[in-house]
Design a protein that fits this description.
- With 311 residues, the protein is α/β, with parallel strands linked by helices.
- The protein has eleven helices and ten strands.
- Strands 1, 2, 3, 4, 5, 6, 7, 8, 9 and 10 form a ten-stranded mixed sheet that branches.
- The protein is globular and about 55 Å long.
Length: 311
């Protein structure tokens, strides 16, 4: 039995999947299997994958397009390892990613979630995410409170984290009824029940100008998560209560920017505003037209390597 199962959801990534697979083959820790779940790609993605197939790297085919969550769930159900990790078909790992995760597993047996930091790659720049990594020791791995350290960009993303199989048995699989913030929805459940061991070293590159990242449709066309179902959890966890207000803020701002004022009012009414900073409170009050201008200006700046947020 391999130590890790690596799951790659694949949909129309013909220009990137080869580099993704090469980054796995270049790992310093090699006790793994790779399950590529093709979600009915219509380009040449499968042709690009075929030369890599082996006893270690297998291709699983969906007969109908089911989406990201379903692709992950398919991989989880087929996984032979106890430790499951993911890599999107347009991202890459540093060579020591699996080695770092393996060390976390050994050093922190009380944890069931294991994550690392990452970096964002744009066409001309590499940018660090604005998360709480600046206040976490970069020399020593440790157990951290996921909810406390996620009031900004994620402390990990789904290409820089590993879950023990028991996490899915307790917290459930990915919600196939939503197609926006699926990772956030799952992270709430997983981190409520289990401890996170974290290495504040950059072990993954998240490419920001590929595929879906280039063609974001309006959030109003998405099936959104329902954070209300986690309010019962938050009653006994103040860090989670603060985190839910933050995620509702992010969701409400997106919705207002896209013109969904009634839905914005519904979600913003659930925010506990004592948990927001002054910038976040101000942004929620601004007219939609101003929010759109700010969003466009931020996109221009980030391509020049300058990143500003309300976090």
């Amino acid at each position: 039995m391999p130590f890790f199962t690596v799951i790659i959801p694949l949909y129309n990534k013909e220009n990137y999947i080869e580099n993704t697979l090469k980054s796995i083959l270049n790992q310093t820790f090699t006790d793994y299997e790779v399950l590529i779940v093709n979600d009915c790609s219509t380009d040449k993605s499968v042709e690009k994958v075929k030369p890599f197939l082996s006893e270690t790297i297998r291709l699983i085919e969906h007969t109908v397009n089911k989406g990201l969550s379903a692709s992950r769930n398919t991989g989880i159900k087929k996984a032979n390892a106890n430790y499951i990790t993911f890599l999107d078909a347009d991202d890459v790992w540093k060579p020591t990613f699996l080695e770092t995760i393996h060390q976390l597993v050994k050093d922190f047996p009380e944890a069931k979630i294991f994550g690392t930091n990452y970096e964002e790659v744009y066409s001309n720049n590499i940018v660090s995410p604005i998360n709480f990594s600046n206040v976490i020791d970069s020399n020593n791995a440790q157990i951290i409170d996921f909810f406390k350290y996620n009031l900004g960009q994620g402390i990990y993303n789904h290409g820089s984290v590993c879950f023990h199989k028991s996490v899915y048995e307790k917290a459930g699989l990915y919600d196939e009824t939503i197609d926006f913030a699926e990772d956030i929805d799952f992270n709430i459940r997983a981190n409520y029940f289990f401890k996170l061991a974290y290495s504040n070293t950059i072990q993954m590159q998240y490419f920001m100008e590929t595929g879906a990242q280039l063609t974001r449709s309006s959030i109003l066309n998405k099936r959104l998560p329902d954070y209300d179902k986690y309010d019962a959890f938050a009653k006994e966890n103040n860090s989670l209560s603060k985190y839910l207000s933050f995620e509702r803020y992010v969701l409400a701002k997106h919705i207002k920017t896209d013109g969904g004022y009634e839905l914005y009012k519904k979600i913003s009414s659930k925010i506990d505003y004592k948990y927001l900073n002054w910038k976040q409170k101000l942004l929620l009050k601004l007219p939609t037209v101003i929010l759109k201008v700010i969003k466009k200006y931020k996109e221009i700046l980030i391509k020049k390597g300058m990143k500003f947020t309300s976090y």
